[in-house]
Structures are given as structure tokens and as C-alpha cells.
Design goal:
With about 400 residues, the chain is an alpha/beta fold. Helices cover about 20% and strands about 30% of the residues. The longest helix is centred in the last third of the chain and has 19 residues. It binds adenosine monophosphate (AMP) and magnesium ion.
Length: about 400
């Protein structure tokens, strides 16, 4: 069985994790400092700006985990006990009268003096309304102690946490009506290529429809970014310069296309003239060429234009970069090992991210893995990672990154 997770040799190509580390370093050097205070219902998908520290014990008092009877274990002799009070959730009980029990319902405060709750299934109500408990009970049984979940002063969510329904629920349980979140990242999306036209137009000779624009714009919206759709950029230096110059007030310019070897790379030229440019050749497939630079101080990431390459490089590099710009810590997607349901006889010098699915616990892959085939990703529910210089036979372990991990 081949080991998983060990990078291989990739010659002069830059390993994916090296590129990611550099991007994250640059993201950290330009994290978004501005924040806003939002009602709790509006923070979904945003990044928490300040530590969330509990101002209360949760639960605030011991309460019953069951519908049943609260009593003192020591009062149980096997003889029936009188019910001295009835406590519903939301009520404040009297201290328990010694030698009695209290009818109690789930979530109701346990009265002082009681040290256990017996569930009603283990209790028999007698003709005289006293209650007999069938089994011996243990102190603390069926009681959720005060502060079980959190206590005053405890760090509940650290700054940099991405907020979703669960975090919203947790903040609500602590009484927070508003939270401070990092302001949204503003991303301008550019599609480069003379061959591109927008859907809705008739397709002329040599033209293809622009798929990356809507793919990236929707994805960025899911990531909680403000999207500035900067349209299609022709393969022309003057137009490139002019369009870049128009992009004011953005945190990142994200472009696709025009980074392939051999093509006149107008974005690259513009960056060299009015900023800086780093061109990387990554050990990643689909993908490989990636541009990082600045134009008049604004960071620019140029992804390869083939749609499946755009998808993979955005998922594994640009997405973590954008989240880290907002101060998020855990930006890398979860991956887990599964047995391959396919053979991979020819080792490559780039790390492959095959579009695949899980079937009967094994990863299978789409029949056509060409970087131009976006259908492979629509069919897939994950990226199957095959490391550099690696061959596989069916049953060998591969890493699987669910697309659901990276798509939002
Ligand atoms: P490039 O990196 O510009 O050489 O583009 C690589 C391949 O991706 C070419 O076949 C392009 O036609 C295609 N491509 C580039 N941009 C897009 C786009 N926005 N939508 C669909 N295909 C694209
Ligand atoms: Mg192009």
C-alpha cells in the first residue's frame, strides 16, 4: 500500500504546500483590519473579529435532563415518596422538602436539596399518588450541572472562527444579540481571453462561452466576499492596463486565463510595469501556472483559464488565501483517506486532483480528467489527491477532499 501525504519530487515545480504557505504568509501580512458589528442573524459565513468569551454559566443552574422526579438519593428506601411540588421548565422551584420528591420536566431547574432525577419510566405512581422508584439511583443522575457547557470567563469561540448556523446558535445560547465580524473582502473578478463571450450571445467562430466568470462570482459570494464583476478582458496590453486601473477599492484582483506558457501574458506585463509579479509553476494538475503579484499595491492572483484548473487552484490556493485575509485560522479543507477504486499506473510529476466520487467506500474518478472538462467536477463530489511520483493500484489509500468542504 502506498503511503499518503508524503510529497514527492517534482523537479523545478513548486509543491502545492509551498505555494499555499507563501500565499498564506502574504495574506497574513495584509489581513483586513476593519470590522463591523452585526445582528446575530446576519453573521452567517463571516469571520469572528473578537474572541467570544462567556458572560454566564451554561446552563445557569442545574436542570433536569428528563421528564421524571427529582429527589435526594439518600431518601430512597424502596418506600413510595410523596410528590411535594411540580416543576416545569421556566419555573423557579421551592427547596425540596426532605423525604419527598418533586415532579419535574426536561429543562426545569432542579430544586435545592435534590441530587438526582429519576425518569418517569422507572417510577410507579401509586393509588394514593405517592411514587415508588423501582431502581437504586446515583447522585447527579439525569441532572445537567450548572456550567456543564461553559462557565463565566471561558473562551467559547476564538477570533478568526468562521461563523455558521452552529456558531450562531452557540452565541445565542450565551445571550449575544450582535457580534463583531471582519468586514467582507472585496474581490474583483476578471476573465481574460479574446475567445470569450458571455452566455446569451450567439457563439461566433473561434469563440467559447465564459464559464469561469459565473463560477468564481457565485463561489466568492458563498465565501462571503463582495464581488466586483470586472467582466471579460481582451488579450491586449492597453486594455489590460486600463481595466486594472479602473478597479478601485478592492482587496484582491482575481483573474483567470492568460497565464499559460507561450501566451502573451498581458496581465503579467501590466503587473511588472506597475507593481510586481511572481510567476509560479506549481506541481499541481489540473493547474500549474499561477500568477501572484500586485498592481498599484492591490494583490492580484491569476489562475489558469481551463475551468477545471480554475476550480482546483481556486479551491486549494485562492480560497484559503481569501479566508486568511479575514483572519481565519483553519483555512485548509478537511481531507480523509479512502481506498482508490481505480488503478493509476503512470506516475506524474505533479500532484493530481482528480474529480471523483465515493462509491461503496472507494474513490472512483470521472472518465475524462482533462482540465477543460468542467463536467468532471459537476459529476464529482470530491477531489481525489494523487501525490507526485506515485502509482496506485485499486485498494491503495488516496486522500479525498469533499467538494462541499471547499465550495462554501
Ligand atoms: P489561457 O490560460 O488563457 O491560455 O486559457 C487556457 C484555456 O482555458 C483555453 O482553452 C481557454 O480558452 C480556456 N479559458 C480561459 N478562460 C476561460 C473562461 N473564462 N471560461 C472558459 N474557458 C476559459
Ligand atoms: Mg487566454
Amino acid at each position: 500500500m502506498n503511503p499518503v501525504g508524503k510529497p514527492g519530487k517534482a523537479g523545478s515545480l513548486m509543491a502545492v504546500e509551498v505555494a499555499l504557505a507563501r500565499l498564506l504568509e502574504m495574506a497574513e501580512a495584509s489581513t483586513i483590519g476593519e470590522r463591523e458589528r452585526l445582528p446575530l442573524a446576519q453573521v452567517e459565513g463571516r469571520i469572528l473579529a473578537d474572541d467570544l468569551v462567556s458572560t454566564l454559566d451554561l446552563p445557569p443552574w442545574p436542570n433536569s435532563a428528563m421528564d421524571g422526579y427529582a429527589l435526594r438519593v439518600a431518601d430512597w428506601t424502596g418506600e413510595p415518596l410523596m410528590v411535594s411540588q411540580k416543576i416545569f421548565a421556566g419555573q423557579v422551584p421551592e427547596p425540596l422538602k426532605p423525604g419527598t420528591c418533586a415532579r419535574i420536566f426536561t429543562g426545569a431547574p432542579v430544586p435545592a436539596g435534590a441530587d438526582c432525577v429519576e425518569m418517569q419510566e422507572n417510577a410507579e405512581v401509586q393509588a394514593d399518588e405517592r411514587v415508588r422508584f423501582i431502581e437504586a439511583m446515583a447522585p447527579g443522575q439525569n441532572i445537567r450541572p450548572q456550567g456543564q457547557e461553559t462557565t463565566v470567563g471561558e473562551l467559547v469561540l476564538p477570533a478568526g472562527t468562521r461563523l455558521g448556523p452552529i456558531e450562531q446558535g452557540l452565541a445565542a445560547s450565551l445571550g449575544c444579540a450582535e457580534l463583531n465580524v471582519v468586514r467582507k473582502v472585496r474581490v474583483a473578478v476578471l476573465s481574460t481571453g479574446d475567445e470569450l463571450i458571455e452566455p446569451g450571445q450567439p457563439l461566433g467562430p473561434g469563440q467559447i462561452y465564459n464559464s469561469n466568470r459565473v463560477l468564481l462570482c457565485s463561489w466568492l459570494q458563498r465565501l462571503g466576499c463582495v464581488v466586483i464583476d470586472a467582466g471579460i478582458l481582451p488579450d491586449d496590453l492597453a486594455a489590460t492596463r486600463a481595466r486594472l486601473g479602473e478597479l478601485k477599492d478592492v482587496d484582491l484582483i482575481l483573474s483567470t486565463g492568460g497565464v499559460s506558457v507561450g501566451e502573451a501574458d498581458f496581465l503579467g506585463i501590466a503587473l511588472r510595469e506597475e507593481g510586481e509579479l511572481t510567476l509560479w509553476k506549481l506541481a499541481i494538475k489540473p493547474g500549474k501556472p499561477l500568477t501572484f503579484g500586485h498592481f498599484r499595491g492591490v494583490p492580484v492572483i491569476g489562475l489558469p483559464g481551463n475551468p477545471a484548473s480554475t476550480l482546483v487552484t481556486f479551491a486549494l490556493l485562492a480560497r484559503p488565501y481569501l479566508l486568511r485575509r479575514q483572519g481565519m485560522k483553519e483555512v485548509e479543507p478537511l481531507k480523509f483517506q479512502v481506498p482508490a477504486g481505480f488503478d493509476w499506473p503512470k506516475a506524474g510529476n505533479r500532484r493530481e486532483y482528480l474529480r471523483g466520487r465515493l462509491e461503496n467506500g472507494r474513490a472512483i474518478i470521472y472518465k475524462n480528467q482533462s482540465s477543460g472538462v468542467l463536467r468532471s467536477a459537476a459529476w464529482a463530489d470530491g477531489l481525489v489527491e494523487v501525490l507526485e511520483d506515485r502509482t496506485l493500484i485499486e485498494g491503495d489509500d488516496v486522500n479525498f477532499i469533499p467538494l462541499s468542504e471547499v465550495l462554501s
